[in-house]
Prior knowledge:
By secondary structure, the protein is mainly α. Helices cover 77% and strands 0% of the residues. Helix 9 runs antiparallel to helix 10.
Amino acid sequence: MVDRVHVRFRVPVALLGSGTAGMLVAVQSRINGGLSQQIGSGYLAALASFGSGLLLVGLVLLFTPKARRGMGLLTAEVRAGRYPVWGLLGGTCGAFFVLTQGLVASVIGLALFTVGIVAGQVLGGLLMDRIGLGPGGRVDPSLPRVTGTILAVVAVAISVAGGLGGAGSPWLVVVPLVAGIGMSWQSAVNGLVRAAAQSAIASTFVNFVVGTAVLAVAAAVSVATQGWPENWPSEPWFYVGGVIGVIFIAVAAILVRLTGVLLLSMSNVAGQLIASVLLEAGLPLAGGVTVAMAVGTAVALAAVVIASLPGRGSRA
């Protein structure tokens, strides 16, 4: 009886945890966008965020025997050819996402940025589940999932249409849309890394090593061409984005097997949407929340709810 109750509530609890992590992602976007505005460099802001996350998860790995064993298992799997090298590259998409936080969120605002991320995650989640990339296997599309995906795209169109009066910058929402698709791929392959390493900490560490390496190259080019920022903010909260990233990636790697990539993305973006509107209304990055953005956010949230309804496609 206890086991049946446990199984019954396992997925709802996982979705709640993912939604909470999504709210933290919106906070991270606000932090990294603000840091980019302060120092005038989205590249260095992204590197600071990812680099601090790498430092934190590296320390955790150092003092966690199971995580160190996990790195050994993963290394053995890769060397034996049982795990593909491309499956270690989820951090590249994480790096791109954090980079867009600094370069794009500070221009179009947190609410519109998050709606773009939502549409990308929904589209990407549907695709990743359909091809069976995640550790939970293939999940065929269902009517609620397809309907939710279409609504997510409509939400982007509504949000963008309401902001076309100014300089065309809302079209930059295409960038977070692509980043959102990448985040779905990242969640899927990080789940595979966790399964191979049998450790969420090891999976998160690999993600941050790859992402930090990519961002270090981009930041080096930026400094070489534009110079080093003169003023860095003294407020400590500008530098906790990496900590939030560690929490998000670890939670996603743990929960993706229980929920599937699409439902994980859906619950995650629900949290992102709610938090982003509140943050953009109270601490705006670019003009605050417009009526169109509010309507688009509501439609995107409805897309999350509809795609999460019973009647999911069968697992293969």
